[in-house]
Amino acid sequence: MSSSNIHKDFSLVLVSLLRGVVYREDHPIRWQILMEQQAELRDYLSRMGLEAVIYEDEGYAFLRNQIVDDQDEAYEIPRLISRRALSYPVSLLLALLRRSMAEHDASSSEVRIILDRQDILDMVSVYFSKGNNEVQYVKKIDSYLNRIQEMGFIRFIGENKEKIEIKRILKAFVDAQWLNEFDAKLAEYREYGKRRDG
Questions:
Q1: CA dist 86 to 8, 16, 154, 179, Å?
Q2: Nearest to 171 by CA among 59, 68, 84, 88
Q3: In the chain, N or C terminus with fewer CB closer than 10 Å?
Q4: pTM across the whole model
Q5: Is the CB of residue 90 less than 8 Å from the CB of residue 147?
Q6: Domains 3-65 and 88-197 fall in the same CATH topology
Q7: Tens digit of pLDDT for each residue in 104-159?
């Protein structure tokens, strides 16, 4: 392989990671290049204050800011990967989806996790009051699901979006510690949701 092709391959994977998550199933060629040039990519990214997080078994990779404990404030590297504040409903849905993933993994060897949209609506009904307008309630939940899909944690299946696949990357962002802390607040959130929507 020529030096020019190696640089193109490196650039292809680097730019793909800078733009978001690289999935093995969606981009098998990029994934293969990532596996082959992992050391070079990690070295290059570390110079930018970034770290490549690669889950080979799960088949996805993404970037995050390096965590530096003893960094001098005068030389603090600005965040290249921004953090997003999540609304209560989106946080709640992410926690519920992550819990569904944990339950699925404990009881099934199937890798893909596919839920019916109605199952998700039923799951959140405990935390949100439907009120008198069922259509408005469903539209509201759909808007939260659309936001989660934009974030890359779920994928709608089919034109009518009645099936939803939970993507494995959710496990990397909503870990067990986050889930335990969130569990401690669920009762409070349940009350908040009922007061707010009721």
A1: 36, 24, 16, 15
A2: 59
A3: N
A4: 0.73
A5: yes
A6: yes
A7: 989 988 888 999 999 999 998 888 777 788 888 889 999 999 999 988 899 999 88
